[in-house]
Amino acid sequence: MNARILPYVLILPVTIFLCVFFLYPFVLVAQQAFGTGSGFSLENFREVVSYWKFPISLKNTLLLAAAVVPIQLALALLMATMVNRMQKGRDLVLYIWTIPLGISDLAAGLIWLAIFEQSGFLNTMMSGLGIVDRPVNLLSYQHPGVVFLAIALAEIWRATAIMLVILVAGIGLIPKEYYEAAEVFGASPWKRFLRITLPMLRPSLQTALVLRVILAFEIFAVVAALGGTLFPVLMGETYAYQFDLLNNGAAAAMALIILAISIAFTLVILRILRVPKGATI
């Protein structure tokens, strides 16, 4: 086969897959969001934005992302550094830490529901220690802070491993000679981390943060299991429009709003963590 044609042949299956399962559905969603009986219209967006739950769900989604993602980044960096320094048992520790990756969002929510619900582990422990006289319904409208904390903890536990795997791979690509040279010149471990690890990890940090922020805006199952309607988020409202209210146009508009927010934050992350052109490890 002609060497000039071969690359196009190799990427053809992927191109077809993306067009059929991503591009075509996106066009359909855009048609539903902008289209009405009278043609092109922004009525669906006006309906969604004017609904009283929209600012609340937007605030909750942004607040949850702002609380969860930085903690996950710090934990992933710490865990990746620890794994990279280990001489023995590295694979076992990495395997244990990445177990939550194999658990679905809903299953993770149900696991933490078993901890926070009225007959759950936390109430049992507090009753046993004499902190409370009777079980407390922690996941109720009377305790919005506890609902938020439960959702945040479940997300941190479930999704930190996504960033961990990416950062472990990135640290593994950094040449050991850099650390050895810095150690010879008397650089402390903290200084080596700041001057070598973080700058060299910039491409991996880009990937990890972009992926995690996008997933943070799509959070749904964990919130549904732990917060239900007490903690509305954008993805939950999209589900309600589509399956409860049977309003396809409004659901499509919500989906595009989530997409626009994700793209905006992705561009910000890429701008902040931009890698100089031609830079290599």
Overview of the structural elements:
With 281 residues, the protein is an all-alpha fold. The chain has helices spanning 6-34, 43-50, 53-85, 90-97, 105-116, 121-128, 144-172, 176-184, 189-200, 202-217, 221-226, 234-244, 248-272, and strands spanning 35-36, 39-40. It contains 13 helices and 2 strands. Strands 1-2 form a two-stranded antiparallel ribbon. Helix 3 (53-85) packs across helix 7. The radius of gyration is 23 Å and the shape is flat. Residues 58-269 form the ABC transmembrane type-1 domain.
Please report the distance between the alpha carbons of the first and last residues: 35 Å
Question: In which range does the helix fraction lie?
Answer: over 70%
Low-confidence stretches: none
Principal-axis shape:
flat
Into which percentage range does the β-strand content fall? under 5%
What is the overall pLDDT average?
A: 87
Topology at a glance:
Elements (H helix, E strand, L loop, with lengths): L5 H29 E2 L2 E2 L2 H8 L2 H33 L4 H8 L7 H12 L4 H8 L15 H29 L3 H9 L4 H12 L1 H16 L3 H6 L7 H11 L3 H25 L9
Antiparallel strand pairs: 1-2
InterPro entries: MetI-like, MetI-like_sf, Sugar_ABC_transporter
Family: Belongs to the binding-protein-dependent transport system permease family.
Protein name: Sugar ABC transporter permease
Keywords summarizing the entry:
transmembrane helix, MetI-like_sf, flat, Sugar_ABC_transporter, MetI-like, transport, 13 helices, two-stranded antiparallel sheet, mainly alpha, 281 residues
Q: How would you summarize what this structure contains?
A:
The protein has helices spanning 6-34, 43-50, 53-85, 90-97, 105-116, 121-128, 144-172, 176-184, 189-200, 202-217, 221-226, 234-244, 248-272; strands spanning 35-36, 39-40. By secondary structure, it is an all-alpha fold.
